[in-house]
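Workshop exercise sheet. Pairs work together: one partner reads the sequence aloud, the other fills in the structure field after running the prediction. Swap roles for the next sheet.
Pair: D.N. / O.F.
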Amino acid sequence: MEKEIIQKAIKQYGCDDAELFVVKIEKYPVSFEASKLKSVKSRLLRGYSLRTIKNGRLGFSSCTSLKDNGDKLIESAISAGEFGPVAEFSFWKGQRFPQPDVFFPETVSFEIEEAELMGRRIVRRLNEMLPEAYIDVSVSKSFQEVSHYTSETEKTYYKSLFSLGATSLTVRSGELLYINEGKDSCTIPEDPMAIIGNIIWKEKMSQNSVECPSKPMQVIFTPKTMPILMKGFTTGLAGRNVASKSSPLSDRIGEKILDSRVSIYDDGIMSAGPASAPFDDEGVPKQRFPLFAKGVLKNYFLDLASAAALKTEPTGSAERRFLAAPIAEPSNLVMEPGNTEYEDMIENMEDGLVIDQVIGGGQSNLLNGEFSMNVELGFRVKKGKIVGRVRNTMVAGNVYELFSDKIEAIGNKCESDGSVFTPYVLFKDVSISGRE
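Structure field:
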């Protein structure tokens, strides 16, 4: 039926070209709230998105079922195309693409009963260690079938995903302490109980609450908050922003932008990476490519449209967000580690902060690299020792300034948060607002 949509759009409706993207997702989530089992259920999601080129203009439409909707899907795309952008590219028809490890049979065969048992073990252990805390745990596996159709090609890949998360919420002296830990991968984690140790350590470091001054300070961003800083880069690297000249990185390929110790790349073919795939959501082969190499700008995130606007090749970065039109976004974003132990960073801090969780997700002008966030979970460091959890604290700055001349040290190993893999990074003179 899918192939027939393409043929009908071209032969019957007179389209110059057509492309159909199909995603089918089976999800099996198990969740616990306040230490009690809340939900054990399965979900099946389907999405069909069609793009057409007719009279030189690009049209788009989507639906969740093709049954009795084929003609309507085509007609909606053509109708939208009457007011759509000029198509400066052709749909990708290449058949060659890499084969990264993204499908793991043991993940697909992981039973809901096993997920429930894993969740109960984590809940029980956290209840033993934190009897006053409210504990939430989620264990989820999913299976994806992704297909891409054009007038000349048809290709499909299968992918497994596993997600594990745990949170603790404690009320202490009228304050809320919220700690969350999680892991996403195509495979089941070797030690799912490891997240417990992280929560317990942070709970211990939070026993004492302290205020923070308003002044520039040394700050360590952990791999849980580094993605917020990375968002400042990825917004500027997005093809649509580069092509429109609204990005501060437009026309700067080959320039030294960041500290020479900073190398960042996008790896769409990382083994078991949560955002890995053989091809992107326009059928373009995924790849591993540098964004910044020793501080020098090397590439942007490019889909077909932005690549055509810049008169270059796409980077396999198109994402559809289920039923939306594709845009260029990162897959597995990786910052190369340095050579400093995390513990050594703390020991060398005279007066600073470790920021592990924030509220706000990067407010301010992200396109220009600016950020402003409330610190949800952070620790004050004095003379090389953590002295307590900070409260009433905000952090602000510009990622280009931080990564160009304010880096003091880069951690020697990467940790993941979702599909972002970064080390701990110590910066100097970061703007902090507090009430001390």
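Discussion prompt: The chain has two domains: 2-202, 208-436. What would you look at next?
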